[in-house]
Task: inverse folding
């Protein structure tokens, strides 16, 4: 079977470890020795309840999630969280400050790419507060309109008592990511945030969750991620939420906040162990298998080391291609993502040749997002270092061939 599997560099849904897929195939027929497949078994069965508790523990342990935070599992992807975060945190703000008018409530958004832009747009659509764009990376970009950088610290203007402060840690489409080195100018400016022990800081970790430790995790109010990059199949959203942000949304509505649909209220998920309704059973199952495997390998520190080597190798060959005038990275180097590396192949027809050559070697899904173009290499956890080496070798070969062609 393995000979026929492509190396899938797709941005999500994306590659999953082969051993997990094989185990999941067995679980589809017979889950936990019950004789019932995972897609058929009741989510209220004791076997599934035990599995769900284990999935939560696997995340808590590997990311060091403190007891101040609850882990919730929902559906609806990142997109549902664009809305859920606004509604739950505006309800919280209403309970804390019942007398403020809507125009006096502020939500801070840091915009560094397509996904944070979309999140801010949804916040604007829902209303209930004013939006302050705390920073917009387009302003500090090379052409004034691209998402090609993480803004320098002096570009941020946070509000004093916002209902939420939002950022996207890794912009999957644009290949831009905050640096985890707190001294780097491309790090998230935690030191500039208003001083508040219960800061409503929200981070979208959809495309970097479990790829390495999360800096200052305990200082966040909400961290969320769709599973479909590093963790499992689409359909599952993982939310780490500080307990003070799980509020009585109905009490807030009585004070004038927008009513929160039951399927988006953190409280209903927290009170019912993430099962106010049927959870995405299969997606949770595969994610649990991935997380078990990740723990056995050494957890997020293991992946941090491997992912660092993987991205260093790809950026190195990209740099060589740039020196030859054949490749061009889309992102300023200190802002480059570990997970999604976006670049152009320069020259008439060259990109098509690049993609066709990769495809012939079984390397797929390298075409960039339709809004950006070019090439996007996604290096999620399931992409091995050996597979990365194969891609790098292919790119080196491609560069050599193109150099010969252009010199002849
Ligand atoms: C960083 C990020 N945020 C949000 C989303 C939207 O997630 P979903 O498609 O699960 O709604 C994506 C999707 O790729 C993403 O990469």
Result:
């Amino acid at each position: 079977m393995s000979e026929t599997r492509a190396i899938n560099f797709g941005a999500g849904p994306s590659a999953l470890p082969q051993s997990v897929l094989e185990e999941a195939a067995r679980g589809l027929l017979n889950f936990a020795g019950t004789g019932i497949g995972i897609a058929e078994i009741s989510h209220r069965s004791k076997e599934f309840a035990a599995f769900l508790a284990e999935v939560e523990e696997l995340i808590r342990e590997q990311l060091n999630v403190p007891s101040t935070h609850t882990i919730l599992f929902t559906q609806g992807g990142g997109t549902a969280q664009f809305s859920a975060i606004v509604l739950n945190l505006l309800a919280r703000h209403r309970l804390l400050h019942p007398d403020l008018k809507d125009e006096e409530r502020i939500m801070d958004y840091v915009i560094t790419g397509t996904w944070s832009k979309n999140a801010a747009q949804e916040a604007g659509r829902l209303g209930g507060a004013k939006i302050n764009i705390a920073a917009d990376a387009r302003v500090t970009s090379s052409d004034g309109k691209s998402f090609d950088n993480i803004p320098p610290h002096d570009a941020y203007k946070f509000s004093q008592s916002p209902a939420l402060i939002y950022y996207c840690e890794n912009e999957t489409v644009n290949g831009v990511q905050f640096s985890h080195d707190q001294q780097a100018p491309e790090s998230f400016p935690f030191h500039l945030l208003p001083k508040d022990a219960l800061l409503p800081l929200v981070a979208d970790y959809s495309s970097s969750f479990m790829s390495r430790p999360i800096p200052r995790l305990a200082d966040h109010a909400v961290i969320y991620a769709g599973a479909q990059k590093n963790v499992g199949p689409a359909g599952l959203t993982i939310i780490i939420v500080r307990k003070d942000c799980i509020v009585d949304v109905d009490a807030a509505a009585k004070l004038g906040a927008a009513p929160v649909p039951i399927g988006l209220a953190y409280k209903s998920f927290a009170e019912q162990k993430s099962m106010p309704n049927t959870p995405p059973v299969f997606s949770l199952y595969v994610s649990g298998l991935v997380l078990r495997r990740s723990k056995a390998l050494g957890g997020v520190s293991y992946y941090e080391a491997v992912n660092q080597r993987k991205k260093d190798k790809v950026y190195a060959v990209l740099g060589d291609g740039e020196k030859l005038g054949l490749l061009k990275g889309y992102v300023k180097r200190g802002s480059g993502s570990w997970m999604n590396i976006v670049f152009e192949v320069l020259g008439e027809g060259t990109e098509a040749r690049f993609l066709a050559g990769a495809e012939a070697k079984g390397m797929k899904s390298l075409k960039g997002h339709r809004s950006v173009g070019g090439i996007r290499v996604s290096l999620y956890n399931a992409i091995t270092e050996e597979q990365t080496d194969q891609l790098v070798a292919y790119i080196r070969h491609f560069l050599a061939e193109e150099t010969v062609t252009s010199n002849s």
Notes: The longest strand covers residues 130-136. The first helix runs from residue 18 to 29. The chain has two domains: 26-296, 299-407.
